[in-house]
């Protein structure tokens, strides 16, 4: 008996819900400080108390209040995103130098954006540091599939066994994080080319936006680095239907090999826990949208749909151009 | 300047969220009593205080506690769903006789099910009474569409101008409530035949399950009956792609006429507020799943997706057969 789809969802959407147990939720929040920037009321993320204690916070521009459990980046009222980002970078550089956090040894040299309550860009920070601050991160996940008289088959890559995070696990056909100033569709086109050798023209012609999944992940040991760090995420979802003669191939060292799996084979691998947690969620969403998982064959249909579209308690981005 | 898609979603998903303002949410709950049945800890719905005061609660089997704001249907520990349902029916019959509630003048003579925390069937009650108890109700909504070289067009019915609820508004191609013991797909087949004259064979061959939308509706005057009653809802979603020569026609008096609208025409009618609120939500979900509304062209993409998949704070059904 393998893992149920709801069990897979719960491995990804792990942060408690207020409604399930208000007293527990309120007590649980005491494990965290809230992360704010001056001039903005919104809570941007939750920082584990243990992280707050270890962080070398330069007192010139950080205010740590252990009574209200608030960590504030203090700047003038007219600070720009570039100014805030420089102060964050300076703080992180000191932490790296002192070797404070294991997770920062996976430095990516990619900047991730953080937004305010009106969707305004507030600052950017090194990707590997975002779970220390518990801020929302953004990415794209695409399911490339073939649908013909042999039925529906899905292109599934296995992650390189030497990758820092989730080594050797199965992944979505194309997936990647969105750096600052990147837009979802352009991120998809870039990642599809880099990771799956999918020509830009094929992606542009065949990819269809299909919503997003959102969840509140709590990092396990498989994620690498400190455990229990928070990672609320938004993944924009694409379906890419390709012809049977299109073959996905690793374009960089991140993927070991691609396999074309039937729905049954994919579901069996899911039940065995072979997929990276958020990739399992994306496949479950795909199966729901394609009428493979239904109210009649999935016991936990409603709970699954609500949890993979979680309304995060932090401000989120708008990537609209209009 | 018409209504934005988020404004349309908010007309349907109107109940406040704890996360937006914990103090306001907590204060808001004081407007309601919780509805319970003895032997089950779960809150099954919220009853407006004004409704609690007016309801003729027979003291033999109702306990109304104004301190904890709880209304409990009191039975022996081994009560069956049939026994609970009889007591509810008796209570409602008295309310109808005394003319206590305007909403019960729209008596439908259809029984709606209420489930416990393990998905177990607890009781059923007359459809028109469910908003008095604020319990979750279930339905199916289908979008019938044509997709060919003329583009995507959607079959949109206008509700009869003499209908009690939302007269003259635009609706989804097929929509209907699920009575007790009904399953989503069979409900779809029945409603498609009754309301849209779609032959059973066409529905069975062409309908594809595509998830569900959930939201927490607060009834307005257009819904008929008392305002501010609560109606948390689950709508199972189907896409039905039909050939261009299939013509949907009213099968009963509930629909005035069907129109085949382009995406632009449908979106214009949405912006004019012509659609029944939950039908607008179903179309927005359709547009997201079909890549028409995307992260790049919809400012409120993330908030919309989370709100139309709201995790309800009451137990919900499982309609799975396995």
From TrEMBL, chains A, B:
Keyword terms, alphabetized: Kinase, Transferase
Keyword Endoplasmic reticulum among record annotations: no
Recorded GO MF terms: 8-oxo-dGDP phosphatase activity; kinase activity
Cross-referenced InterPro entries: DUF4743, NUDIX_hydrolase-like_dom_sf, NUDIX_hydrolase_dom
Ranges of residues in domain Nudix hydrolase: 137-283
SUPFAM superfamilies membership: Nudix
Gene3D superfamilies: Nucleoside Triphosphate Pyrophosphohydrolase
Domain of life: Eukaryota
PANTHER family in alphabetical order: THIAMIN PYROPHOSPHOKINASE (PTHR13622), THIAMIN PYROPHOSPHOKINASE 1 (PTHR13622:SF8)
Name of the protein in its database record: Thiamine pyrophosphokinase-related protein
């Amino acid at each position: 008996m393998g893992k149920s789809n709801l069990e897979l969802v719960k491995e990804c959407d792990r942060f408690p819900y207020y409604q399930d147990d208000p007293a527990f939720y309120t007590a649980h929040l005491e494990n965290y400080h809230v992360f704010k920037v001056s001039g903005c009321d919104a809570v941007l993320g939750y920082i584990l108390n243990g992280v707050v204690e270890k962080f070398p916070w330069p007192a010139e521009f950080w205010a740590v209040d252990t009574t209200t459990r608030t960590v504030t980046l203090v700047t003038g009222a007219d600070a720009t995103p570039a100014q805030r980002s420089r102060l964050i970078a300076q703080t992180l550089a000191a932490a790296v130098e002192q070797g404070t956090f294991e997770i920062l040894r996976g430095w990516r040299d990619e900047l991730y954006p953080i937004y305010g309550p009106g969707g305004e860009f507030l600052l950017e920070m090194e990707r590997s540091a975002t779970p220390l601050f518990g801020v929302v991160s953004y990415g794209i996940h695409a399911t490339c599939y073939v649908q013909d008289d042999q039925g529906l088959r899905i292109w599934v890559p296995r992650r390189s066994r030497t990758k820092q995070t989730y080594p050797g696990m199965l992944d979505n056909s194309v997936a990647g994080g969105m750096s600052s100033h990147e837009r979802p569709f352009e991120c998809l086109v870039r990642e599809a080319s880099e990771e799956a050798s999918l020509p830009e023209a094929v992606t542009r012609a065949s990819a269809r936006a299909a919503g997003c999944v959102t969840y509140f992940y709590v990092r396990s040991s498989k994620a690498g680095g400190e455990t229990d760090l928070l990672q609320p995420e938004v993944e924009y979802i694409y379906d890419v239907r390709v012809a049977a003669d299109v073959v996905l191939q690793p374009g960089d060292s991140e993927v070991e090999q691609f396999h074309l799996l039937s729905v049954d084979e994919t579901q069996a691998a899911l039940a065995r826990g072979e997929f990276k947690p958020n990739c399992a969620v994306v496949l479950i969403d795909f199966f729901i949208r394609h009428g493979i998982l239904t109210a009649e064959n999935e016991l936990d249909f409603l709970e699954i749909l609500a949890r993979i579209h979680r309304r995060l308690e932090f401000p989120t981005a708008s990537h609209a151009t209009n």
